[in-house]
Amino acid sequence: MPKPTARSKNAKSLKPKYKRIVLKLSGEALKARGSMDNISPEIVHQVCTQIKEVHELGVEVAVVIGGGNIWRGLSAHHRGMERATADYMGMLATVINGLALQSALEQMGMTTRVHTAIRMDNVAEPFIRRRAIDQLNERKIVIFVAGTGNPFFSTDTTAALRANEIGAEVILKATKVDGIYTADPFKDPKATKYDRITYSEALGKRLSVMDSTAFSLCMDNKMPIIVFDMMKSDNIKRVVLGKAVGTLVTSE
């Protein structure tokens, strides 16, 4: 039997705050800034390295991935495309991103399963709630793609729906900013960051956390959301360990 490495010993000595999480990634997170390539293998590797580190802590990890780096249905609709068709195209873009994550994770020795809300049996298995839960219990990383399988719903809504379906304890919403602010920090230098905020406060202040459908689903089911900066190394691990990272949205 191989001897445990120092890294594995350290991982076992750390106690995560959450047992099962849903990590919500935007498609744009996989694209290098200023690059013409839709997917950066280097960034995918960095993201998957963080996922692996969290998984090694004993956390059950499910991932919901967007497709905005390849196709944005709403933008296409605004340019004249029929909305349902544009949204279905966006769902297919999420499948491409999910397969990229799967490939990188499995190259790192992780066991993964991709669940799609639109059947395509040659590349992924259809989403079945109980099967996904069983796979998480078996220490597999589950990647949810193709959104909810329905037009007019975002991948934020997918994250909220799947998190509640599989009994996750929290949604980790990875962004390019380090939390929720009183205003857009890129436009307003006076914007200040919230460390913690309630659902009702976020709604009352009209803060951009998730789209209204996703946010309402989280609020109704008391599903906490942590919004944090994915670009900083080890941030996913720090969130899972209960460190003060990003902004917590909760019912209290």
From TrEMBL:
Q: In which pathway does it act?
A: Pyrimidine metabolism; CTP biosynthesis via de novo pathway; UDP from UMP (UMPK route): step 1/1
Recorded hits in InterPro entries, A to Z, give:
AceGlu_kinase-like_sf (IPR036393), Asp/Glu/Uridylate_kinase (IPR001048), Uridylate_kinase (IPR011817), Uridylate_kinase_bac (IPR015963)
Can you quote a single GO CC term?
cytoplasm
The record's Gene3D superfamilies line, in alphabetical order, gives: Acetylglutamate kinase-like
Q: Which residues form the Aspartate/glutamate/uridylate kinase domain?
A: 19-229
Q: Which GO terms describe its molecular function?
A: ATP binding; UMP kinase activity
Q: Which domain of life is it from?
A: Bacteria
> What keywords were assigned to this record?
ATP-binding, Cytoplasm, Kinase, Nucleotide-binding, Pyrimidine biosynthesis, Transferase
Cited function: Catalyzes the reversible phosphorylation of UMP to UDP.
Instruction: Kindly provide the name given to this protein in its UniProt entry.
Output: Uridylate kinase
Q: Per the UniProt entry, what species is this protein from, by scientific name?
A: Chthoniobacter flavus Ellin428
